[in-house]
Write a structure and sequence with these properties.
This protein folds into two domains: 6-105 and 267-328, Periplasmic binding protein-like II (D-Maltodextrin-Binding Protein, domain 2, 3-Layer(aba) Sandwich), CATH 3.40.190.10; 107-265, 3-Layer(aba) Sandwich (D-Maltodextrin-Binding Protein, domain 2). Helix content is 32%, strand content 22%. It is built from eleven helices and twelve strands.
């Protein structure tokens, strides 16, 4: 079994005899899985905790929960929906499960459509070639091949729809469109924009965390950024409380001339359930102390501290203690 015993190492470190003169002691390793925000956290924690060997582990928000659960990392940055479904699969086990450190910023869903496609709303995506989710990663967790969804959305009573691998597909399901109703082209966002420019793809869903690098290109091509709103989305939000309304103001992206209403999910900082409580407390405290610098560096939008404890899975006991104390002394 891969070691998930960082906590044990830290606890025992204070009980060991001092090493002989002239020898060195390996520092406990703390690995953080994710993209830009994870890299920023590594820099901050490495500076604040020189007693730890803090390392970055490459991961996407979809793969980070599994990497943390399987012992490849102690912390990870993921989507609220991804960690929610991963937690459902793990159950509430005390070990080998996931816990939350904090809710982070909201990542919106963006829907780009080709004006000549005739797509005027989300329902019109049915039957069109579209990017509805990311390309499958090697060794993708089979749990993501069929997410449990409410009966009111599936209409079948089975509670599971095969092919649901990303939140945009769950949005389509709310509009009565199953994965089989769309000609999904699971390519990277940059490739999707190129295909749209050639007229080979009519629509593309993307999450906000991956959008900044190509949104200007899409809008410059004349692609339309479409709103995702209405009764179907309202019903979806009632079923999944972690789905949040988002308004993207005009001018957020170069070439965006009007506001866009859509939905999104919080990014979530997660850890293993068996992470040492004091370490989890310290990491939560250090994260919020470093947040102004991380935000100033452009690695994360602003975060409302009052919303930070509102996570779709249970908080780690150490993080919960931090939030209780922060509220007490506020």
């Amino acid at each position: 079994m891969k070691p998930a015993v960082l906590a044990v190492v830290l606890l025992l470190a204070g009980c060991r005899a001092a090493p002989p003169a002239g020898t060195t002691t390996a520092r406990p390793v703390l690995r953080i899985a994710g993209t830009r925000l994870a890299e920023a956290l590594v820099r901050e924690l490495a500076a604040a905790r020189p007693d730890l060997d803090v390392r970055h582990v490459n991961a996407t928000p979809l793969t980070a929960p599994g990497q943390v659960r399987d012992g490849e990392a102690e912390l990870g940055v993921t989507f609220a929906d991804s960690v929610y479904f991963a937690h459902l699969a793990d159950g509430d086990a005390a070990t080998h499960g996931l816990r939350a450190i904090s809710a982070l910023h909201v990542a919106p869903i963006l829907l780009f459509v080709r004006p000549a496609s005739g797509i005027a709303n989300v329902r019109d995506v049915r039957g069109h070639p579209a990017r509805t989710g990311p390309p499958p990663a090697p060794g993708t967790d089979p749990r993501f091949s069929g997410w449990p969804v409410p009966r009111s959305l599936t209409g079948s009573g089975t509670g599971t729809v095969e092919g649901i691998t990303a939140l945009p597909q769950l949005v389509l399901l709310a509009y009565g469109i199953t994965p089989g109703d769309v000609k999904n082209l699971p390519v990277n966002p940059g490739e999707a924009i190129t295909e749209m420019g050639k007229g080979k793809m009519d629509a593309m869903f993307a999450m906000g965390f991956e959008a900044n690098t190509f949104t200007a290109q899409a809008l410059a091509q004349g692609q339309k950024l479409m709103s995702i709103e209405g009764a179907a989305v309202d019903r979806l939000r009632r079923e999944y409380a972690f789905i949040r309304p988002v308004t993207i103001p005009a001018g957020t992206f170069p070439g965006q001339t009007s506001a866009v209403r859509t939905v999104g999910v919080n990014m979530i900082l997660v850890c293993r359930a068996d992470l040492d409580e004091q370490l989890a407390y310290d990491l939560t405290r250090l994260y919020f102390a470093a947040l102004p610098r991380i935000a100033a560096g452009g690695d994360v939008p602003g975060i409302d501290p009052q919303q930070a404890p509102l996570t779709p899975i249970p908080l780690h006991d150490g993080a919960a203690r931090y939030f209780r104390e922060a509220e007490l002394f506020r």
